[in-house]
Design brief:
Helix 5 runs antiparallel to helix 6. The protein has 28 helices and 21 strands. The longest helix has 47 residues. The protein is α/β, with parallel strands linked by helices. The strands form 4 sheets. It has an 8-stranded mixed beta barrel with strand order 13-14-16-17-18-19-20-21, surrounded by 5 helices. Strands 2-1-5-4-3 form a 5-stranded antiparallel beta sheet, sandwiched between helices. Strands 7-8-6-11-12 form a 5-stranded mixed beta sheet, sandwiched between helices. It is elongated, with a radius of gyration of 55 Å.
Length: 765
């Protein structure tokens, strides 16, 4: 392979050497000296050339030129100093011979200057430094030859030697000046060469593309990086590689550049790569038509495709939801504002649907965030399927979605969309092997005149959605100005309730549970009230239901549990026999579904220092049986701490006594609805008797709620019910009043419960 490469390179080397020889031989400076030949002929005829054979002189001159050219070819310029010295000495010696053959000797020393100038053309200023000693050496040898009469001379001695000295000085001075000017020129050229090389290196190795565009629009130069960045060479560059959608803007941009004068203007455009894909380039163009060294527009192009894609991703993320890939709140508001403006011009309607997934918090807490996320993604997909291409659906936040419907003729069109969404969401969502059923409450607000404000339309739809939740969920409601104040009042109440927690406006009352056999108070149930600064004392029914729809109820449960634990520590000091009185606290389903519920309760007990045996926690039957395995595990943990557990409102949930034996509970509390009607409804009496019997069989105590008449207390005692609570004895009391009751004695003497009931009958008669 190496031999083949050498064979291929050999012809090129030979051709280069021939071109080099031709340039040396046909050098004008070499040919000009041959014009001296006619002068020799004329000079010898007129006798001012020495009487030497003319062929000898001409032959010497020709020999000098030919031999000098051959030596220059053999020892080419740019070589070591010795090669230049050899060429210089050889040429100077032959020139000296020709000079002294004419008889004029050193007077013709200008010939040395010509020779030095020729060598300086080939090797630069260093030829002048070597030429001066050779000039002096050759003239010295020549004058010695004249003095020895070895050569003829036309000049008398010693005047000829003096002229020789002056000629030598003049020739050396001329060579020195030529050398100095050439050295200065070489320095300038070297500086320019370095700058040019630096510029060329920067341009050729730059990651940017540099292009020069001529007056007629042709590309006259393109840096090598165009091949790297565009995959194209100079001949392949043209206006057709610009994206057609950018052409109009590009023409306008270049017109501005041509009208300017050197200022760099910037623009982004798409350029077709050789691989067939368009890439984004940032171009900076300046007008240099007036600069003769450029004569065109200088365009620097930088590939900014990655930057543009990153910016587009950021822009997308700024206006889209990561989970569902739907537009987010900011994008929805922007689109809604534009739709309202367009509706104002076309006199068409715009509707907003505000959608909230019902009981999503329950799914998220009980089944995990992964299931919750999959549920939201499925809801988003179903919403897309229910809409037209021009409609907009967005994830507004959490489990809330918004829909914008434009080009409406009437509100019925928006209602049809809401009904389609409601029907679509009724189908179960399959997550792994689990089916999750989902529904949504939808509020609808419609603007028919195009004069609505986007934020107002959203607020109206939001209020209508809250009204749909109040009416049972899984439905839609159209915004009605008459119902809005009620919803607004409820929202304001919710905000006030958060502030009530911060300012401790919630107070705790305690309803005693009376042991029917002895009349003693064994337990007191903690009941929350709201001491509203403007509305007075509010019962739980006015604020607890909507608190259960949010995390408010969790904060309220923590507040009541902490307050109850602090109070129960003092009660044992006020009882007649010093026994422990237990405080019972209701916990909401949302509180019990927290993964950290046991940790929370344990932390409150440690913080207050209460004896866990003095704490009873009440949960509803529905809460206990929602996720039986998890509930049983948590109740076992609580009972291990010494805490008692009660099932509240038993009989109103699944109404299956078989479930009762699976639950690790201490107390079953009969719901007041069975107590109220057991005197008139035999079925309710049977249920009461069955619960009491099964509770005792399972080792549980039974408490009856809502006892308000003496007959009820007597019947419950006869059936074997352990304790009861209700307005028959005392209402819910502040902690201080309950302590007073405990100190002064029981409300009903243990030995005369029947007498007390009779006395109450006489009093009522």
């Amino acid at each position: 392979m190496a031999e083949e490469a050498d064979a291929q390179e050999a012809p090129f080397d030979a051709a280069a050497r021939r071109r080099e020889l031709r340039a040396i031989v046909l050098n004008p400076m070499q040919l000009i000296t041959l014009l001296v030949v006619p002068l020799f002929v004329v000079g010898q005829h007129l006798h001012f050339i020495a009487d030497v054979s003319l062929p000898l002189i001409v032959g010497a001159l020709i020999f000098t030129q030919v031999s000098t050219s051959v030596l220059t070819f053999l020892l080419p310029p740019g070589g070591p100093t010795w090669t230049l010295s050899v060429r210089m000495g050889f040429a100077m010696s032959l020139i000296g011979v020709c000079m002294y053959l004419t008889g004029w000797g050193a007077v013709l020393a200008v010939g040395f200057a010509f020779s030095v100038a020729e060598q300086m053309r080939l090797d630069g200023a260093r030829a002048a430094r070597l030429g001066i000693p050779w000039i002096l050496l050759v003239i010295t040898v020549g004058e010695l030859a004249v003095a020895g009469h070895w050569v003829q001379t036309l000049l008398p001695e010693p005047q000829g030697h003096g002229l020789a000295a002056l000629s030598a000085f003049a020739a050396c001075a001329l060579c020195a000046v030529l050398g100095w000017t050439t050295a200065a020129k070489e320095q300038v050229e070297e500086s320019l060469r370095r700058n040019e090389n630096r510029w060329r290196a920067l341009v050729q190795h730059s990651s940017d593309v540099t292009v020069v565009i001529g007056p007629t629009g042709e590309i006259v130069y393109a840096s090598p990086s165009s091949v790297t960045l565009l995959g194209r060479k100079l001949r392949d560059l043209g206006p057709d590689i610009v994206h057609e959608d950018d052409m109009a803007a590009v023409h306008t941009f270049f017109a501005r550049v041509r009208a300017g004068s050197g200022e760099v203007l910037r623009h982004d455009l798409r350029v077709l790569h050789a691989d067939g894909h368009f890439r984004w380039f940032e171009i900076g163009v300046s007008n240099h038509f007036e600069d003769p060294s450029v004569g065109g527009l200088v365009c620097n192009m930088r590939d900014v495709t990655d930057r543009r894609e990153f910016e587009e991703r950021l822009s997308y993320q700024a206006f889209h939801d990561d989970l569902t890939q739907l537009p987010n709140r900011a994008a929805f508001l922007h689109r809604l504002e534009h739709a309202i403006e367009a509706a104002h011009e076309t006199v068409e309607g715009v509707a907003v649907l505000f959608l909230d997934v019902d009981r999503f918090k329950l799914v998220n807490d009980s089944l995990g965030h992964e299931v919750g996320d999959r549920l939201l993604i499925d809801v988003a997909d179903r919403l897309r399927d229910c809409l037209r291409p021009s409609d907009v659906v967005a994830r507004f936040g959490g489990d809330e979605f918004t829909v914008m419907i434009d080009h409406l003729q009437n509100a019925d069109e928006a209602i049809l969309v809401a009904e389609r969404i409601t029907e679509s969401l009724r189908l179960p969502v399959t997550v792994g092997t689990r089916e999750v059923f989902v529904s949504a409450s939808i509020g609808i607000a419609v603007s028919q005149d195009g004069h609505a404000i986007a934020s107002d339309l959203l607020r109206q739809a939001d209020l209508a959605m809250y009204l749909a939740k109040e009416k049972g969920r899984s439905r839609w409601e159209l915004f009605d100005a008459q119902s809005a104040p009620h919803v607004v009042e409820r929202l304001e109440l919710e905000g006030e309730l958060w502030r009530a927690l911060e300012h401790e406006e919630l107070i705790v009352r305690f309803q005693p549970e009376v042991e029917l056999a002895t009349g003693r108070v064994l337990t007191a149930e903690a009941l929350v009230r709201w001491e509203h600064p403007r509305r007075g004392l509010l019962e739980p029914g006015s604020f607890v239901p909507f608190a259960e729809e949010s995390s408010l109820i969790v904060a309220i449960d923590r507040y009541v549990l902490r307050a109850a634990c602090l109070e129960v520590m003092n009660w044992s000091q006020h009882t007649a026999d010093g026994r422990r009185v237990v405080v019972s606290v209701n916990l909401s389903p949302r509180f019990m579904r927290q993964p950290e519920v046991v940790t929370d309760i344990t932390a409150i007990i440690r913080e207050t220092g209460v004896d866990p045996r003095c704490v009873q926690l009440e949960i509803t039957e529905r809460t206990a049986l929602t996720d039986v395995e998890t509930t049983v595990a948590r109740l076992h943990e609580l009972r291990t701490l010494g805490i008692r557990v009660a099932i509240d409102d038993f009989g109103t949930g699944y109404s299956s006594l078989g479930y009762l034996k699976r639950l690790p509970v201490d107390v079953v509390k009969l719901d007041r609805t069975f107590v109220e009607s057991m005197d008139t409804q035999s079925s309710d009496l049977a249920i009461v008797q069955a619960v009491i019997t099964m509770g005792h069989a399972l080792g549980m105590k039974v408490t009856a709620e809502g006892v308000e008449r003496p007959e009820q207390a007597a019947r419950l005692r006869a059936l074997g019910c352990d304790t009861a609570m209700g307005w028959l004895w005392v209402p819910a009391l502040p902690a201080s009043e309950l302590a007073e009751v405990l100190r002064e004695g029981l409300p009903v003497p243990a030995e005369s419960l029947e007498m007390h009931i009779a006395r109450l009958k006489r009093r009522s008669a």
